[in-house]
Amino acid sequence: MKRFIAGAIFATVLAGTGFAHANTVATGKALYMAHCSGCHRANGAGGVHFGKAVSANLRAPGLETTYHHSTKLLVRAILDARDEDGDRLDQPMPAWKGRLTKVQALDIIAYLKTLHS
Ligand code: HEC
């Protein structure tokens, strides 16, 4: 228990220094490479055809603009496969709820913001 509290305090201190951000991006990159790069390409450019659907370009600033710079809408796009208007994104984009947590979706978004077209 003591160790847990020490860890929590350490994490809080790190969060204030910017280390936590770098950590988030690294985690997001690992998650992206494992789950998303197969369809959206390693560089996030997308453009892979699946029948009539084409995987989206996930690089900044285009993606953020599409979702009105709303992190909430971006999280929904990843977890619920809903576009900016709330409609179902085209298959085969999966809804990641149940396979990724909200925190993991946020890590991926932090990573996507480091990719620029
Ligand atoms: C099986 C292929 C596939 C996988 C795996 C996949 N995607 Fe997609 N994704 C797509 C396709 C196809 C679209 C385009 C859907 C559309 O245009 O309606 C898309 C669309 C999106 C969009 C919407 C972008 C926009 O411009 O509206 C986001 C965000 C997204 N994907 C994020 C992810 C993330 C993050 C992962 C990994 C956790 C992931 N995708 C994994 C196929 C995939």
What does this structure look like?
By secondary structure, the chain is mostly helical. The protein has a single domain (2-112), classed as Orthogonal Bundle (Cytochrome Bc1 Complex, Chain D, domain 2), CATH 1.10.760.10. Helix content is 54%, strand content 3%. It is built from 6 helices and 2 strands. The chain has helices at 2-17, 19-35, 37-40, 62-66, 71-80, 102-112; strands at residues 49-50, 53-54. A two-stranded antiparallel sheet has the order 1-2. A hairpin with a 2-residue loop joins strand 1 and strand 2. It starts with a helix and ends in a 5-residue tail after the last helix. The mean pLDDT is 90. The structure holds heme C (HEC).
Q: How is this fold's topology laid out?
A:
Blueprint: H1 2-17, H2 19-35, H3 37-40, E1 49-50, E2 53-54, H4 62-66, H5 71-80, H6 102-112
Antiparallel strand pairs: 1-2
Helix pairs in contact: 2-6, 5-6
Bound molecules: heme C.
Comma- or semicolon-separated keywords:
globular, 6 helices, two-stranded antiparallel ribbon, 54% helix, binds heme C, 117 residues, Cytochrome Bc1 Complex, Chain D, domain 2, mainly alpha, 3% strand
